[in-house]
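note to self — DONT lose this again. spent like an hour looking for the file last time. sequence + predicted structure for the chain T wanted, 124 res
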Amino acid sequence: MQSIQNYQSLIYQLSQLSDEQVKRNYLNYLEWTQPIASILTLIDDIEALRLVRLALDVDLMLGAFLAGKVKPELQKVTVDWIGELEISDELKLKLLTKTKSKVAVSFLEEFIKNIYNEPAHLSY
């Protein structure tokens, strides 16, 4: 009962908070990770995308985890954000895997294909 009230309170408060308040008061605390992940499919799509974008600003692994927790129809957007990050291929691979999203599979397939098509990986 208490956790339902906490989730309802969180859902209500999120739309009232600035980006910086969300980052500082929720996304920076590990104990809020699961509650936020749990409400991502319950809240407005724009608010869910906002949370993922802010989480990516706070911590890439947190953002990747939450990217895979939004509604399936939003995962194309959130996984694309990860795919567009200017980071090492190794980190991008870790983040895409962290999403556990079916949408990430196409990115991962393309990533693997590119690795094996690079001249350094060809045997002569």
